[in-house]
Write a structure and sequence with these properties.
The protein is of the alpha+beta class. The protein is about 25% helix and about 30% strand. It has 16 helices and 31 strands. A hairpin with a 2-residue loop joins β25 and β26. The longest helix is centred in the N-terminal third of the chain and has 22 residues. Bound molecules: adenosine-5'-triphosphate and magnesium ion. The site of adenosine-5'-triphosphate (ATP) has 16 residues, from β8, β21, β24 and α12. Adenosine-5'-triphosphate binds next to β8, β21, β24 and α12.
């Protein structure tokens, strides 16, 4: 491809709505343009990177026997009603009505459609196992689309679904897909990690996520410095060993005292001259599945700990994490504003984090503005529904399998789930076993965010000047800067190199614009192809061209007639 016929427009300035480097670089490099929040058009270079990644995905899946299909983007309500997810998915499922009044949604995921596709066709145990996948556009009406392709509303996903006769075979299929994912992300040539994960609204009880490491990643990962334990912080258990030894035996009488203007744990710790870990904070959530209705519960944590809403969701068996009550709602429940609230005297369910369970004579809000109560003891002063691990694990904690946890930030690019019979039971997707008995199918599902991965690669691989593509999905491997396009012999020499590289099936791009060298070099750095070839009149006088490696900026001079061999050598295509 030549710049003069590429419909490529780079920008000098960062777009005002981009917060992270990869988003800025994709817009500045002309890779993407916004159509509406979370909805983008992909330019020719982005499309090439996307296609290259899709090919890696296809090769690794097909070599493990997966079969490509394509399911519809528009899906009928009736299928989603069978699993209850029409309502459970909430507002993220984009719903609409057609002219006859029939309800549809845009495909946010395809478990229902694929299960229906399979149940219509399979007959007996002889039809198993099989794995169906597609690479397709998904739509989710995300509350806060941001970071460009990272959290889009419309995005491309590869989704695969495995179908097996029984648990053991389903586990084998899961492991096979895990291997496929490892092969895919190994081939990308980036740094990634596999972590234990929450199953979210997909359901099931075993799942792992694949994360590309990057400091701006939305997820925190905790990885043990010994052994293989690694988990998304959302589900990382906290070991009892991490709880301090706060044991006092005599239970003292309750005492309410004035704490004027003290509204935060930090302020209370200063006011009382104690550590935040010696204080207890009370948080209020609504655990109603219906967003229009409030069902309040209280949760007690050490002042120094953070609540983990996913653990609370899983403890209560909810489909979505519970929502924090607003200040006004808290006032309605307790009679005081947040900062002065506590569990004593409330008639709502109270949950206790394990770390609080070992505390006695602690301080909480008095449910009266600007007052706190001390010498509070659960059991004696208020009833507890359940004690559980409900807080965030942190870097430095002892891990569940020993070792010390270290924190990383990651971008979730892949997610694999063992589903079991959740969908097949709900949708009656059954087969006749060898005894002629009807059995529900065992399923797994496996997603990769294709467009998110492409941007996540940039988030990990860039420098101050632009993108630094790994060879795996670079739109082009070589970027020729034709430095004196108006000099016919230079132009011809560059043209010859360009044609020869193309003949060798090497992906080459040539900047043949009538622009100054400085402009071309800046754009080449911004676009980020792994190698730049400078072909200019001055070098050609000595019969030389320059090769610059994008990652290291290292430059070598090479005779014009050796360029082809050298490039083949560098690209490992010899
Ligand atoms: P997240 O936790 O980031 O919202 P998810 O857990 O809802 O994602 P899955 O349902 O597991 O996502 O979807 C499979 C993959 O699709 C994810 O691992 C991610 O790479 C990608 N993906 C999900 N949501 C988006 C989005 N809004 N924009 C781009 N890619 C997405
Ligand atoms: Mg996920």
């Amino acid at each position: 491809m030549k710049w003069s016929n590429s419909f490529l427009f780079t920008l000098k300035e960062d777009p005002s709505d981009a917060e992270i480097p990869s988003h800025k670089l994709m817009v500045r490099g002309g890779y993407i343009r916004k159509v509406a929040p979370g909805i983008f058009s992909y330019g020719p270079l982005a499309l090439r990177a996307i296609r290259k990644f899709e090919n890696i995905v296809r090769e690794e899946l097909e070599s493990r026997g997966a079969i490509e299909i394509l399911m519809p983007m528009v899906q009928p309500k009736e299928l989603w009603d069978e699993t209850g997810r029409w309502t459970q998915m909430g507002e993220s499922l984009q719903k609409m009505k057609n002219r006859t009044g029939a309800h549809f949604c845009l495909g946010a995921t395809h478990e229902e459609v694929v299960t229906d596709f399979v149940r219509q066709q399979i007959k007996s145990y002889r039809d198993f196992p099989f794995n169906l996948y597609q690479i397709q556009t998904k739509f989710r009406d995300e509350i806060r689309p941001r970071f460009g392709l990272m959290r889009g509303r419309e995005f491309v996903m590869k989704d695969a679904y495995s179908f097996d006769l029984d648990f053991e075979n389903a586990q084998k299929s899961y492991q096979l897909m895990k291997q496929a994912y490892q092969a895919i992300f190994d081939r990308l040539g980036i740094e990634y990690r596999v972590v234990q994960a929450d199953t979210g609204s997909i359901g099931g009880n075993q799942s792992e996520e694949f994360h590309i490491l990057a400091s701006s990643g939305e997820d925190e990962l905790l990885v043990s410095d010994q052994g293989s334990f690694a988990a998304n912080v959302e589900i990382c258990p906290v070991q009892k060993k991490n709880i301090g030894n706060l044991v006092q035996t005599t239970l003292l009488p309750l005492e309410t005292f004035s704490t004027p203007g003290v509204r935060t744990i930090k302020a209370l710790a200063e006011f009382m001259e104690v550590g935040e870990n010696e204080l207890v904070k009370t948080m209020f959530f609504s655990v109603s599945e219906d967003v229009n209705q409030i069902k309040p519960v209280a949760l007690l944590l050490r002042g120094s700990d953070e609540v983990n809403p996913i653990k609370l969701k899983n403890l209560l068996g909810l489909a979505n994490p519970p929502i924090l009550l607003t200040e006004k709602e808290v006032h309605g429940v307790t009679g005081a504003w947040p900062g002065s609230c506590g569990p004593v005297g409330l008639n709502i369910p109270v949950y206790l984090d394990e770390a609080v369970a070992s505390m006695t004579n602690y301080v909480v809000g008095a449910n009266k503005d600007d007052f706190h109560t001390k010498n509070v003891n659960h059991g004696r002063d208020f009833a507890v529904v359940k004690v559980a691990d409900l807080r965030m694990a942190k870097e430095g904690d002892i891990g569940p399998e020993g070792g010390i946890l270290k924190s990383y930030r990651g971008i979730e690019v892949g997610h694999i789930f063992y589903l079991g019979q959740k969908y097949s039971k709900a949708m009656k997707a059954q087969f006749l076993d060898s005894n002629g008995k009807l059995e529900p199918i065992e399923m797994g599902c496996y997603g990769i965010g294709v467009t998110r991965t492409v941007q996540a690669v940039i988030e990990q691989c860039h420098d101050k000047d632009g993108i630094v593509w790994p060879l795996s999905i670079a739109p082009f491997h070589i970027h020729i800067c034709l430095l004196d396009p108006e000099d016919p012999s230079t132009h011809q020499a560059a043209e010859e190199v360009y044609q020869k590289l193309k003949e060798q099936k090497i992906d080459v791009f040539m900047d043949d614009r009538k622009e100054r060298p400085g402009v071309k070099f800046k754009d080449a750095d911004l676009l980020g192809m792994p190698y730049r070839l400078n072909i200019g009149t001055r070098g050609l006088i000595n019969g030389e061209v320059e090769i610059i490696e994008r990652r290291t900026k290292k430059m070598i001079k090479i005779p014009l007639n050796k360029v082809l061999d050298k490039m083949k050598n560098l690209l490992g295509s010899e």
